[in-house]
Amino acid sequence: MSVYRVASRYAKSLIELAQEQNKLELILGDIKSFKDILNNRDLYMLFKSPIVHADKKQKIISKIFEGKYDELTIAFIRILIAKGREEYLPEVADQFIHQYKVIKHISTVKVITASPLSEAMIKKIHDQLQNSNATDLKVEITTEVRPNLIGGFIIQFDDKVYDASISHKLEKLKKDFEGNIYVSQIRSN
Prior knowledge:
With 189 residues, this protein is α+β, with helices and mostly antiparallel strands. The chain has helices at residues 3-20, 24-37, 41-48, 54-65, 71-82, 89-103, 119-131, 166-178, 181-188, and strands at residues 106-113, 138-145, 153-157, 160-163. It folds into 2 domains: 3-102, Peroxidase, domain 1; 105-178, Glutaredoxin (3-Layer(aba) Sandwich). α1 (3-20) runs antiparallel to α2 (24-37). The protein is elongated and about 70 Å long.
């Protein structure tokens, strides 16, 4: 079974349990925090390691998270460890967040620009996307700066990409000239 399917199924189970217990927002906070903690390479490698036994991992979970996370979150992590699925914890966390956003009708839009955007520009883009039919009810914007774009922007969300960058336009222009038989005949004369 693929990593995506395993992660998706476990995330769905946790979301359903959280909804039943009216703890969806609380568990989301735990999962986001846990995902951030998994950026620690040592902890990440601990979960991925087949050498470290499950009982040792369980003890580590207890020491680190008890009293900080909801019991449901800790129990869920323990179940994954007991079933030997702890290596999928980062993917399960990603899937949980994704499924939460689907339930709450939140579209995450990534805006990539050559230079940092002002807050006013981010708000303008947010409002444009919020009022469009392309996004869900709520829009969450993340930004990234890539100087090699030269200018313009790229917007990514769901499976859509709108590339209005200068580098993309220059690349397209270059391809148009390469395929232009009239220009190539002029060059050869």
